[in-house]
Write a structure and sequence with these properties.
This protein is an alpha+beta fold and 152 residues long. It has a single domain, classed as Aminopeptidase, CATH 3.40.630.30. It is 32% helix and 36% strand. The protein is built from five helices and six strands. It has helices spanning 12-23, 73-88, 103-111, 140-145, 147-151; strands spanning 29-34, 41-51, 56-63, 93-99, 115-126, 129-139. It has a six-stranded mixed beta sheet with strand order 1-2-3-4-6-5. A hairpin with a 2-residue loop joins strand 5 and strand 6 (129-139). The longest helix is centred in the middle third of the chain and has 16 residues, at 73-88. Bound molecules: coenzyme A. The site of coenzyme A has 20 residues, from strand 3, helix 2, strand 4 and helix 3.
Length: 152
């Protein structure tokens, strides 16, 4: 039944091929957030699941080391990709899907003027049970109305 393949632990070349397919994929735009002086990677920000026909994409963000959080890095990085998404790629809508117990992310997207668009009931299972997820979204027209904020 399984004679047409075998499984193995990936070697470095295979990981590189997988990684390149991830970042060079037309539906995903992945960026590393680097510290200006040390050049150290602080985290990543991506627009994924890009739907070019309907011109929307999902935004994801991670600041890896907790000591680097609450310093404004995520806010500034997202402002950069927001500008790319609307001004350069001509998307119409960005959205994020946030677990309702993820206070830092909720604060982040509220600060960035994303609107609370919908609640997905009990759609994620975490350690202590099922949680709602909140969809936050930003439309290009709302971005353009607040262009000064996103340029700051
Ligand atoms: C969510 C995350 C990216 C925020 O990164 P960050 O660099 O700390 O965010 P910022 O410093 O730009 O903060 C943005 C706002 O959120 C607030 N905030 C961030 N963390 C907070 C916390 N733990 N408690 C309360 N407010 C918080 C900040 O105070 C700031 O608001 P303010 O300027 O009005 O004070 C980071 O916590 C993280 O990587 N979490 C794990 C991954 C994750 O959950 N990603 C999001 C998936 S949708």
């Amino acid at each position: 039944m399984f004679s047409e393949f075998f499984i193995s632990v990936p070697n470095f070349d295979e990981i590189e091929i997988w990684y390149n397919s991830l970042i060079n994929n037309n539906r995903n735009k992945v960026f590393i957030i680097n510290h200006v002086e040390s050049k150290a990677p602080l985290g990543m920000v991506e627009i994924s699941k890009i739907d070019w026909k309907n011109r929307n994409g999902h935004i994801g963000i991670l600041i890896g080391n907790k000591v680097n959080r609450q310093k404004g890095y995520a806010s500034d990085a997202i402002k950069i990709v927001i500008k790319l998404a609307f001004d350069h790629w001509n998307l119409n809508k960005l959205y994020a899907v946030v677990a309702e117990n993820n206070l830092p992310s909720i604060k982040l997207f509220e600060k960035l003027k994303f609107a609370k668009e919908a609640v997905l009931k009990e759609s994620v299972y975490l350690d202590s049970g099922y949680f709602n997820q909140i969809i936050f979204s930003l439309l290009k027209k709302n971005y353009e109305q607040e262009i000064g904020f996103y340029n700051s």
